[in-house]
Amino acid sequence: MMLGFDVIGFLISWLTLFGTYAILSMSLNLEIGFTGMADFGKVAFYGIGAYLAATITAFTFLFVNGIKCPLHSVEAIVALKECASKNPALNVSIFVLCILITFIITGAIGYLISYPTLRVGPAFLGITVLSFGELLRIFMRHFEPTGGTKGLAGIPHPLAWIPDPRLRDGIYAAIVLVVMLLTYLLSEKIANSPFGRLMRTVRDDEIATLCLGKHVPRIKAAVFFLASGLAGIAGVLLAYYLGSVNPDMFVPAVTFNVWAMVIFGGMGNNKGALIGSAIITFVDRISFVVNLLFPQAIISPDYIRWMIVGLLILITLLFKPQGLMPETPIKTLALTAVAEESGGEENA
Amino acid sequence: MLEVIDLARYFGGIKALDGVSLKVKKGSIVGLIGPNGSGKTTLFNVVTGFYEPTRGEVWFNGERIDGLNPNEIYLKGLVRTFQIPRLFQSLSVLENVLVTPPHQIGESPLNALFKKKWANQEMNLARQAFNILKMLGLAPYTNIKVSDLSAAHIKLLETARGLMGGAKLLLLDEPTAGVAYTTARELFDFIVKLRDEKGLTFFIIEHRLEVLMDYVEYVYVLHNGKLLSEGKPDEVVEDKKVIEAYIGEG
Q1: Would A81 be classed as within a structural domain?
Q2: Most CB atoms closer than 10 Å: which of A66, A119, B98, B113?
Q3: Structural domain count of chain A
Q4: Per the CB < 8 Å rule, is A333 touching B123?
């Protein structure tokens, strides 16, 4: 192996990042891939999730331990570090609670944001949530209680009571992958149900769906609620992984990175979203490592990363416009019923 | 069942529909004919809520329905098909038919998560849909994407979808355009069968008079947005005004 290259550490960081981004890209896939809603503001809900987790956790830890100081102050960071590993039950229960609360709150915010825009064209939704994300980021930069541009740091890790950092990160990566798997199962379930069929009809022809007596805005709002909630959960996972949040982590580029994963992997296919995020996060990690190994390189691999992503997209669009894994037909029970029916005919 | 009273729709200065009154009785098959541009499709559009009428009333099952939204009218059981079909291109033939029944259990996002809740209904609907497809000769294409279907089959599928939608009255806009002659007759045989078995009512726009006239009980003839003639098929065919409208004044 190369000098100073830690394979296991690399794998752990890649898998954690992959799990987080896979949740994001599956949630985007529900919107753009299945329902045809262009969500250019994914990062807003990701950020809200991360900030919610950071704030709730830091506040609860300080409150439980009777420490009175602002969440973003240096004293708070020191105090959090001290009390982080005292009570494992507290760490874990806050983690679980944060995931649940965040899902509901980010989902509800997504629903409210989408409410006025879903009744008009798709471009309006895209622009509205894009600018919502940017407004929120700029607001957070100036919002003192959560630390302004510095953000919050020292957020107690849910597994802070495990002394060995390698083991802790490994288990955390596994937890992230489990959440990702649950998201995958949920998305598959939704996509292959009669509701999933409606999502596709909205994408194919909104007017015709409306004419069939279906409540199109309600369908879109439900999808937006779910997808925003999932993006919030991804944010929670990120906040605990990094142990800190700040507004400039949530720039629009993050949204477009997720878009790249979905386009690359295949729209309307959850497995495609998984593969897309696996490959692009891998490129991301590799370029990061190369950057560390060759600090004196003339061109920073950090910049080449974006070029590689762009190249991947170009190649996909040229040779496999539907992505690595194109959409597959719905797997509902309908075909089984039909098979029984026609099978019965032949036997008779 | 359907009653239209003095219905009019103007587009700017053009009187696409100018004071038409007609009735469609429950359990009947009624035709609507007329030369191109005579206002047949406009009439359908106004009746099904796609256009608001400039004047006049539409009654369906004793309820006034003009001014309602298309989806509200659809849910009341007044279902139309389109002259140019609007199908869901990326879905299969079967899925396209399956979408139509209103208020399916699994269409609520919460229920969608619990297969047990909707599985039964889905199976039943699928069987029903498959039977409709079979009767229309679409069974071999059940699992084919609509974008890979031929024009004639698309036309038939549009009708299949109308039949599936829990309709009481079906407005069919040129159901046999671009369909082979024998298939067209089969389609009409099927319409008669549905009327007899399920008590459905049909109101059909059709240019293929040779087929239509053998099946309908009553025909309305539109010309320049006005009702030109009405009556039993053989009466209408003999009507001098109708012949003039179609082939010009002699």
Answers
A1: yes
A2: B98
A3: 1
A4: yes
Question: How far lies B115's CA from each of A29, A44, A141, A294, B107, in Å?
Answer: 22, 32, 45, 53, 11
Which range (A169-178, A314-323, B117-126, B163-172) has the least confidence? Answer: B163-172
Q: What local confidence, expressed as pLDDT, does residue A49 receive?
A: 96
A69, A77, A155, A158 from A80: Cα distances, Å = 11, 5, 7, 12
Question: How would you class A163 by CB atoms within 10 Å of its CB: exposed for 0-12, middle for 13-18, buried for 19 or more?
Answer: exposed
Q: What is the DSSP string of A6-28?
A: -HHHHHHHHHHHHHHHHHHHHHH
For A57-66, how does the pLDDT look when each residue is reduced to its tens digit (9 = 90+)?
Answer: 999 999 988 8
Which phi and psi (to 5°) does residue A148 adopt?
55, -135
Q: Say how many Å lie between the first and final Cα of chain A, rounded.
A: 67
Q: Is residue A113 part of a domain?
A: yes
Residues linked to residue B11 through DSSP beta bridges, in sequence order: B14
Distance (Å) from the C-alpha of residue A331 to the closest C-alpha of chain B? 10
- Among B107, B117, B135, B147, the strongest candidate for a mutation testing the A interface, having the largest count of A CBs within 10 A, is B107
User: What amino acid is encoded at B11 in this protein?
Assistant: F
Domain ranges, residue A141:
7-251
In a domain, A334, yes or no: no
First-to-last alpha carbon distance for chain B, in angstroms, is: 38
| Rounded Cα distance, B215 and B231, in Å | 14
Give residues with Cβ within 8 angstroms of A298, minimum separation 6: none
Q: Predicted confidence band at A52 (pLDDT cuts at 50, 70, 90)?
A: very high
Tokens read off for A277: 């995020």
H runs (alpha helix) in A118-215: 122-141, 165-191, 194-204, 206-211
- A181-200 tens-digit pLDDT: 999 999 999 999 999 999 99
Share of chain A above pLDDT 90, in %: 58
| Residue B10 near residue B195 (C-beta atoms within 8 A) | no
Residue A106 is assigned to a structural domain of this protein: yes
Return the CA Rg of chain A: 22
Cα gap B121→B119, rounded to integer Å? 6
Residues of A in contact with B113 (CB under 8 A): 186, 189-190, 193
The pLDDT value given to residue A346: 42
